[in-house]
Amino acid sequence: MKGFRLERLQSELYKVLYSVFNGEISDNRISGISITKVKLSPDLSLLKVYFSDYNQQIPLEKILELLNRSSGFIKKQIAGANIMRTIPQIVFQYDETNERVGKMDELFRIIAEEKRNNNYYDDDRDNVYYDDDELEDEDFEDYEEYTDDLDEDLDFDYEEIEEDEDDNSKK
Fold this sequence. Notes:
The chain has helices at residues 3-24, 28-31, 60-69, 71-80, 97-117, 137-153, 158-170; strands spanning 34-40, 46-52, 89-94. It is built from seven helices and three strands. The chain has two domains: 3-95, K homology (KH) domain (GMP Synthetase, Chain A, domain 3), CATH 3.30.300.20; 103-170, no CATH class. By secondary structure, the chain is mainly α. The chain has a three-stranded mixed sheet. The model has no long low-confidence stretch (mean pLDDT 76). The longest helix is centred in the first third of the chain and has 22 residues, at 3-24. It is flat, with a radius of gyration of 33 Å.
């Protein structure tokens, strides 16, 4: 099946499943589930339904069992939508994206906190942790040599530039 037709069919199946889980299903334990993604196999025989935001008081295994039991009702709803000739087998899978994002945010927060607490300077090439009070005159010697080098490079005669501009404008 062509890619765009498959995507369109997945979009329609998502709409049907969204309406099922937001009002049509009678079991309160799985009625609040959020469908995050629907993936249909190219031969239209398998439908993977990714979900999240389930009731944390009920174990994930129990939620998966309840979803598998309700797959007959869901297949009936898909058949009633008249979007497919054959109804695919439905497989439910928990989407862990939110937990992964939470873990990554926590890691970034810890890294930022460590940088703030340790006075770590990103531009310091030797990665030395130090306070501003510990800077000594030796640390500034290289800086002074650098600025002296710059001053020497910038010594040029502005009059020469003006003369060149005058010559170019006359031509």
